[in-house]
Each structure stands twice: as structure tokens, then as C-alpha cells.
Amino acid sequence: MGTSTAYGGPGGGTPLVPSWLGSDGDAGGLASPSAPPAGAPTKDPASPATLPPAPPTRLAIPTPADGSRFTAPRSNFTRFAGSGGSDRASLGRAVSGYVSKSSGGARQAAQRMGASRGSGARLLGFLTDVQARGATEALRSLDLEGLAGRPIDEVFMGLADYICPNAGTVDEGIAREAFIETIVDLSTLGVTDLDALSPDQMQTVFELYATHAIEARLCNDIGTKLVTAPTDPLIALRVQSQLRDFIRNGVSDALTAARAETPNLTQDRVHTFVDTIYERAFGILQTLGDAEADQ
């Protein structure tokens, strides 16, 4: 969880979904390639006179969100971490409050996963291509055929810049951190051969990635005490493991339902599929959190 301790979390006045956060974490509001540069003179086809330059288009400034919306989830998360993982009710309240109040609901929470949604779609698209055409052809389409036949961890490290480009912002850093942690997990699970990857293993790869991405996003927003609150490093690891298992259960349920609805995933549906997974996962996590809080 390198990102979780490197950033103090967003301020309460930060918009729920920043204006620059698109589905791929890229800046939005760019002019159409066919449009003239802002401020360039234009001519009326019926008159040789030059018209005054059009005023530049400005992005709307998002309305600041409730300045205290992170307070309660952060407090509950700190209590959970300080308890060494025994206070599951506080974990439930922290996660449920994060989705419903801090983020404004499951859909808004999913939209905050900008770069992770884009990276998740590229990862799942690559795996879908491997299933359809084989690892060699999938890698050749990315000019990475030299990685063919290598162990899966080496292949994925070679794919890092394609899956998670431009790790310059916190959002992009979360996406890249999640991908690196997924690579580490694959070696411990014994998933080593990309050519022999089964559909269930493909689901596992994406499930791990989405779990790590949501965990890192949540920790950056409300979980800054996750590592520092427990005084014993072993307890800190136990707390982190409980949080990860909690999130993975939500992601797994969301992915299983989505696969049942879309058993034959095609490249043109990958982005929509990934967006659905994140939104459903946050909805399930809110429900699971409410259940923990009521116990």
C-alpha cells in the first residue's frame, strides 16, 4: 500500500468527481481535432471580411462538495485500524459511509476510479485478446512479441506502460500500484503461464486488479491511518488483509454477476463491462458495510 501513506487524502471541498477525471483518467473538454484553434480568426463564406475571434470555450468549474463528507468515514476507519481489525462495525460504517456520503453513491464512487477504469479495461481487453487469438498474437498487436513465451510476471511488467501509462497523478499512481500488486499476487497463486490462462484465471487476474485499485482509492481518501494506527506491524498487516478480503468479496460478487450476463465478452464491450463491475462492486460494498455495522 505505498500510495496509502504517501497522500493525506483529498480535502472535503474537493468535487465528488473532478472535471478532468474521464473514464481513462485523461483530461476532458479537449477541442475537436477538426475545430480551429481557440482565438483563430474565422471568415464568413459570404463576405471577405474577417470576423472577430470567438471567445474560448471554458470548462465548467465543479461545485465544491460538502467539506465534511470524509470526516465520519475517516473516523470510523481509524477506529477499525486502531482496534487491530476487531471492530468490524467501524469498518462497515467507514466503507458504507464512503460510498453513500463521501462519494455520493455507487455510480459516483465508480467514476472516481478514472485511471483505474481505463487501466482495468486495457488489462481485460488484453486478456480477452489472449483468449481469442493466443498470447503471441495479442502481444504482437502491441509490438511486444519479444515477451511471448516469458513467465506471466515478466510479460505483465513489460505491459505496465501500456496498461497504466503516465503515473504522474495520484489517480494514475493508484492504477499503477494496483497493477504491480496484482503481478505479485499472481506468483503467489501459481498463475505463471499466460498461454495456459483459463477463463477462471482470467477472472481472477481482473478481480485482483479491481480489488487493489478500490483498496488504494479508499485508503487514499479515508484510510490514511491504516498502517500507522496499529502499533504492531503484524496487526497492521492483519487489518490490511481484512480490508482487502472485504473489498474482494464485493468485487467477486460483482464480477460473477456480470459474467453471467455477458458470458462472451468482446473487445467493443470491455469498457462498459469494466464500468459495470466498479459500480456494482461499490454498491455491494455499501450493502456489506451496512450489514457489518448492524451486527
Describe the structure.
This protein is mainly α. The chain has one domain (66-294). It is 57% helix and 1% strand. The protein contains ten helices and two strands, in the order ββαααααααααα. The protein has helices spanning 71-82, 88-102, 106-111, 114-133, 135-140, 152-163, 170-189, 199-222, 233-261, 270-294; strands at 42-43, 50-51. The chain has a two-stranded antiparallel sheet. A hairpin with a 6-residue loop joins β1 and β2. α4 packs across α10 (270-294), α6 (152-163) packs antiparallel against α7 (170-189) and α7 (170-189) crosses α8. The two termini are 29 Å apart. InterPro entries: QatB. Residues 1-90 are annotated as: Disordered. Residues 21-33 have a biased composition (Low complexity).
Continuous helix count? 10
Please give the domain count.
Answer: 1
Helix content: 55-70%
- Cα(first) to Cα(last) distance is 29 Å
Shape: globular
Q: Structural class of the helix and strand makeup?
A: mainly alpha
Query: What letter string, H or E per element, gives the SSE order?
Result: EEHHHHHHHHHH
Spans of at least 5 consecutive residues with low confidence? 1-7, 19-23, 25-37
> How do the strands of the widest beta sheet line up side by side?
1-2
Determine the mean pLDDT: 83
How many strands, which pairing sense, and closed or not: the largest β-sheet?
2 strands, antiparallel
Radius of gyration: 22 Å
Strand fraction equals under 5%
How many E strands? 2
InterPro entries: QatB (IPR049675)
Region (Disordered): 1-90
Biased composition (Low complexity): 21-33
